[in-house]
Specification:
Layout lengths: L1 H39 L13 H7 L5 H5 L6 E2 L11 E2 L14 H5 L18 E4 L15 H5 L7 E8 L2 E8 L9 H5 L7 E4 L1 H4 L13
Antiparallel strand pairs: 1-2, 3-6, 4-5
């Protein structure tokens, strides 16, 4: 009986030791991954207005959250583990809450390190660029007259316009984004009436295509 108790005690101790070692190892791997994510994550999420180029932004952002606190609309969040932006850095999701383009840009003014340009004029912000991605879902391509993305745009008449075009043998009015005026605020995406927004705001390097990667296709 006593022997049985000692044997169970040893088994329990060994199991506990194994769990402890496993937790320590997992914690070590998680910490290493966290450090890697914090320093090297390629942000596909949208940054606040006035954000420096991504590499400079990551180098200067101290993850203090002051920009998040300063936003009067709760637009900004700090990235958590498993999200696309580097852990602890600010981003926003337009379909949930867009940037309401405050004239005094309180989020940028709250930044203590210059990761956000405190002198940014909100109309000069380049948070992203709107792109019409859902040609099969956009109501205009279905023959209807929808202008919600044009009507809600804070830079109405300049950033998004309806332009005549042709689709499937029909004349339609096509939502057209003018990237030189679009700030990437995401108001159009937020208010798009289709289930999955037919117009979405993407980081500018994605939305505008960026430089080609195929050497054979590059200009000489």
């Amino acid at each position: 009986m006593a022997s049985g108790k000692r044997k169970m005690t040893r088994r329990t101790a060994m199991a506990e030791a194994a769990r402890t070692v496993g937790a320590v190892c997992l914690g070590g791997f998680s910490l290493a991954a966290l450090i890697t994510s914090t320093g090297q994550a390629d942000a596909r999420a949208l940054r606040p207005p006035g954000a420096r180029p991504e590499e400079d932004f990551l180098a200067s952002c101290v993850r203090c959250g002051l920009c998040v606190q300063a936003c009067p609309y709760d637009t900004l969040s700090l990235a958590e583990w498993g999200q696309e932006a580097a852990v602890g850095t600010p981003f926003f999701t337009p379909r949930e809450v867009p940037c309401y383009m405050c004239r005094d840009v309180p989020c940028a003014r709250a930044c203590p390190t210059g990761a956000l340009d405190s002198d940014i004029a909100i109309r000069d912000a380049e948070m992203g660029v709107a792109v019409l991605v859902g040609h099969e879902d956009c109501l205009n391509y279905k023959g209807m007259n929808c202008s919600i993305c044009v009507r809600v745009c804070p830079i109405r008449g300049d950033a998004i316009t309806l332009e005549p075009g042709e689709f499937d043998g029909r004349r339609i009015m096509i939502p057209t984004v003018h990237s030189d005026h679009c700030t990437g605020c995401g108001t159009c995406e937020k208010h798009c009436v289709t289930g999955h927004a037919s117009i979405r705001v993407l980081p500018r390097d994605l939305g505008l295509g960026g430089a080609g990667r195929n050497p054979a296709g590059r200009a000489t």
